[in-house]
Design a protein that fits this description.
The chain is an alpha+beta fold. The chain has helices at residues 40-51, 83-114; strands spanning 19-23, 30-36, 56-62, 70-77. The chain has a four-stranded antiparallel beta sheet with strand order 1-2-4-3, covered by helices on one side. Strand 3 and strand 4 form a beta hairpin. The termini are far apart.
């Protein structure tokens, strides 16, 4: 088979940098970030966060080929800041956001362990996706008819 080994999707080769910066000579204040061993997941999150920044004029990404494990993220900013600075801010903001989600999840697991071992149903709203009462992890009920599962508000 011609496909690369699966571990190559995740393992950064020795001496390789996670992020490379390439200045764009055609556009002012524009940089292309080549992010190694990542895909659409992180690239789209970064693009979304970058576009929310008031000094970002342009942010887009592409994955050159499905068998090449990097994404190209191009960012152009106003003259008030640099693309590297807004990228650093976006990464820090995402780490903070997802760190909060992780700690909320860990707190919920601790609460579950302190109780009788069952996942509190109210914590998961109508999703019922985690059912600790079932030893095989099969999803529970997904709500009643007429109830939209995407309307559930989970407090963190």
């Amino acid at each position: 088979m011609n496909a690369p080994e699966r571990h190559e999707m995740f393992t950064l080769p020795d001496g390789a940098r996670k992020i490379e910066l390439l200045k764009d000579s055609k556009m002012a204040n524009c940089v292309q970030f080549n992010i190694q061993r990542e895909d659409h997941t992180i690239a789209n999150l970064l693009r979304y966060k970058l576009l929310a920044h008031p000094h970002v004029l342009f942010a887009a990404y592409r994955q050159p080929h499905p068998l090449e494990y990097y994404v190209e993220l191009k960012v152009q900013t106003s003259s008030r800041t640099t693309p590297a600075d807004v990228m650093r801010e976006a990464i820090e903001a995402l780490m903070l956001e997802y760190g909060n989600i992780r700690s909320a999840f860990d707190n919920e697991l601790l609460r579950m362990d302190a109780s009788d071992g069952r996942v509190p149903r109210a914590a998961y709203g109508a999703f019922g996706a985690i059912d600790a009462g079932n030893e095989f992890g099969v999803a529970g009920d997904m709500g009643t008819r007429g109830q939209r599962a995407d309307d559930v508000d989970i407090d963190f």
